[in-house]
Amino acid sequence: MSESPLVSVIIPTYGRSESLLNSIDSVMTQSYKDIELIVIDDNNSDSEYFKYNYNGLLQSYPNIIYIAQGKNVGAARARNNAVKVSNGSMIAFLDDDDIWLPDKLKLQIELFNHSSVTNIGMIYCFTSIFDSNRNKIKEIHNEYKGNPVLVQFFKNITSTSTMLLPKNVFLEVGGFPLLKSGQDYIFLLNLLEAGYNIDYVAKPLIEQYYHNDERISNSYNSLLGTFETMQVIESKISILPMGKRRKLKRQLNFRLLYKAIYFDDRKFKSIAIKKSINNFIFEVLLIYTVIYLPIKFFGGKMVIEFLQSIKYRITR
User: Fold this and answer.
1) Known SUPFAM superfamilies for this protein (predicted)?
2) pLDDT per residue as tens digits for the range 97-111
């Protein structure tokens, strides 16, 4: 691959024409210049945002590739559609309310070319978080390189707008899953499960803005996305040790129950409670089968000696 590959930057947009302009400007002012910018419009064709983008965007930015889908298909599918028509050997994503700092792509390309990590599937960076009034809340410094697949099960290492990756890796992994939320989380999990490694630029090169109003209005989508993500994760957790598997299930159930209570959704409260009860019953039966019954039939001393011998074999 070239030391200065063409990077296709993909911005899906929905309902944010004003902030979109700031996102576009942050791409246009990158110090790295080998860029193809694709804006894919996820608004319905009869919406005011679509009309504004269609009539004004191409005039203001004649060098961008503007794709008008004409209907709302969701950010994940929009990104996947844009990748299909992209020309770059590298892909980067930017949400339409996030902003890149000027050296974001330059530093990531340099690291991709010269990293000590082999078989790199993705480069990310640190993030600065701002509230809706543009007050800085915090910086996120997740420092994971190599293949931290076990970490990714329990926490999302990074977000979509930080990612830079080869297009062929994106396609091999299958693109973003078509979920209501958590697409970046599952995408990175799939990438790591495929055996690819990651590395990071240890600088906050992206500004993300938190919008309280959207998190309230999209409460059902948030709950549905959490549930869908939960189902995908549960289909994958067989690779985890039993203890971590149980811990992850408890964590997922708590997350769903917390959101269901917060948004006062009876359906998902019921689902979360049933799952928690089933997991509790399973753990009680496991303890009963593995510990109580052997002690009853063979005696406590013999069982303890047996468990200690197993621990010795595992840790030696």
Assistant:
1) Nucleotide-diphospho-sugar transferases
2) 899 999 999 999 999
- Cα diameter, the chain: 82
Residue 214 lies in a domain: no
13 vs 72: CA distance, rounded Å: 10
Q: What's the CA dihedral at 83, 89, 93, 99 to 10 degrees? A: -140
Looking up tokens 């005696």 gives 299
For 238, residues 6+ apart whose C-beta sits below 8 A from its C-beta are: 245
Number of structural domains (the chain) is 2
Last residue of some domain: 209, 228, 257? Answer: 209
Whose CA is closest to 71, among 39, 41, 40, 44?
44
Report pLDDT digits (tens) over 183-210. Answer: 898 999 999 999 999 999 999 999 998 7
Structure tokens at 102: 């000027």
**35-59 pLDDT, tens digit each:** 999 999 887 776 776 666 666 676 6
- Structural domain boundaries enclosing 146: 7-209
User: Using CB atoms within 10 A of its CB, is residue 181 exposed (0-12), middle (13-18) or buried (19+)?
Assistant: buried
Q: Which of 209, 243, 274 is the last residue of a domain?
A: 209
Tell me how far apart the alpha carbons of residues 98 and 215 are, in angstroms, rounded to a whole number: 16
Please state, in angstroms and rounded to a whole number, the distance separating the CA atoms of residues 136 and 125.
17
1 within some domain: no
**Do residue 252 and residue 203 come from a single domain?**
no
